[in-house]
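Quick note —
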Amino acid sequence: MLNRLCVLTVKVNNLQTALKFYTEALDFKVSKYYGEKIVSLVHSEVPVVLEETAEENKGANVLPGILSEDIERDFSRMKEAGVNVLFDEPQSCPPGRYFVIEDPSGNQIEIVEFLNIQEK
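Predicted structure written out below.
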């Protein structure tokens, strides 16, 4: 089932400036560094809110990630359902594998499978 939000990616212009803001102004803590350009922050549950708007927000800087337990199965399912999938196959990422889809409004959503991540 693809109904569990597992990550919310915020695209930033400068990682160090953003990290200072999120840790000092918003009190987030660093969970893990994935190299020089990606940092995971500690967070708790993340609600999902759908809001209809007259404005077109294509290219927004917030990208929700939905947990996949079988990336190949979910990739095939999305393709078969006619969902707009932005890759020809799942891609590697620091914590595992992912692919990106678009909803009917053009909002992008990552489908992510974590590999070698220990449960809490």
